């Protein structure tokens, strides 16, 4: 406090008031002996994030179905994405539940739920995915075995190939699915018939595809024909 007073050449009362205001706005946090900076753009789900707010009701309903699949003792992987983050809102407090994730949004929500063990994957921060992503992320993932993996995507093309945006995301997603006994895809209807940059699997690679009922009838018919298990809210 004295260092701040001397640096900004203001009174101690002014410093105390400014610190209180910054703590209330969650820009900084108090720690023993001082304060630390919090980056709200990284750790908080911002109302200005248009990706999160797009199809938000559908995403919450999809995530609630996904969360209902979690059982006692599960070790689960939660992928990057703006649908997977909503799983935390509906996640049951299962005994012995462990969550492994590279997703900063998920990390921020789970740090306040002590009943759930949180495992954070290593890597470099990627602003596009708002998560950690690097070769180290891939290497570390190979050490885990998951009972369930809850996956996201950029899109699903007309041939039911599931896509993502970068080489590292592709490898991370493929590794997570390879380490999981069961994988679920969380995808809203806006992402169907939407070509993407890189394919990481097909719909047939998932135990179930969780989506909303706004997908086109032709797509629904094709999923039935291809015997793809589909869950709707």
Description:
The chain has two domains: 2-38, no CATH class; 50-231, Rossmann fold, CATH 3.40.50. It is built from ten helices and 14 strands. The protein has helices at residues 2-8, 12-24, 40-43, 50-53, 56-67, 87-90, 104-110, 135-141, 167-178, 217-225, and strands at 28-31, 34-37, 75-78, 98-101, 117-120, 125-126, 131-132, 146-151, 155-156, 161-164, 180-186, 198-202, 208-210, 230-231. Strands 5-4-3-8-11-13-14 form a seven-stranded parallel β-sheet, with helices on both faces. α8 runs parallel beside α9 (167-178).
List descriptors:
2 domains; 233 residues; alpha/beta; single chain; three-stranded antiparallel β-sheet; seven-stranded parallel β-sheet; Rossmann fold
Layout of helices and strands:
Layout: H1 2-8, H2 12-24, E1 28-31, E2 34-37, H3 40-43, H4 50-53, H5 56-67, E3 75-78, H6 87-90, E4 98-101, H7 104-110, E5 117-120, E6 125-126, E7 131-132, H8 135-141, E8 146-151, E9 155-156, E10 161-164, H9 167-178, E11 180-186, E12 198-202, E13 208-210, H10 217-225, E14 230-231
Parallel strand pairs: 3-4, 3-8, 4-5, 8-11, 11-13, 13-14
Antiparallel strand pairs: 1-2, 6-7, 9-10, 10-12
Question: Short summary of the structure?
Answer:
The protein is of the alpha/beta class. Helix content is 34%, strand content 23%. It has a seven-stranded parallel beta sheet with strand order 5-4-3-8-11-13-14, sandwiched between helices. It has a three-stranded antiparallel beta sheet with strand order 9-10-12, covered by helices on one side.
């Amino acid at each position: 406090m004295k260092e701040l007073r001397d640096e900004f050449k203001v009174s101690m009362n002014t410093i105390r008031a400014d610190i209180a205001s910054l703590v209330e706005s969650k820009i900084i946090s108090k720690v023993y002996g001082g304060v630390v900076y919090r980056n709200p753009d990284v750790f908080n789900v911002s109302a200005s994030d248009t990706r999160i707010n797009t199809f938000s009701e559908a995403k919450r309903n999809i995530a609630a179905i996904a969360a209902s699949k979690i059982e006692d003792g599960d070790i689960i992987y939660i992928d990057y994405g703006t649908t997977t983050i909503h799983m935390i809102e509906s996640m049951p407090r299962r005994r012995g539940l462990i969550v492994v994730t590279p997703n900063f949004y998920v990390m921020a929500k789970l740090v306040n739920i002590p009943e759930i063990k949180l495992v954070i994957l290593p890597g470099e921060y990627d602003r596009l995915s708002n998560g950690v992503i690097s070769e180290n992320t891939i290497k570390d993932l190979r050490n885990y075995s998951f009972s369930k993996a809850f996956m996201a995507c950029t899109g699903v093309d007309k041939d039911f190939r599931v896509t993502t945006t970068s080489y590292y995301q592709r490898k991370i997603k493929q590794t997570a699915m390879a380490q999981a006994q069961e994988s679920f895809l969380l995808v809203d209807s806006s992402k169907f018939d939407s070509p993407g940059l890189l394919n990481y699997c097909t719909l047939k690679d998932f135990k179930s595809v969780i989506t909303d009922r706004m997908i086109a009838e032709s797509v629904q018919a094709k999923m039935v024909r291809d015997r793809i298990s589909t869950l709707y809210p």
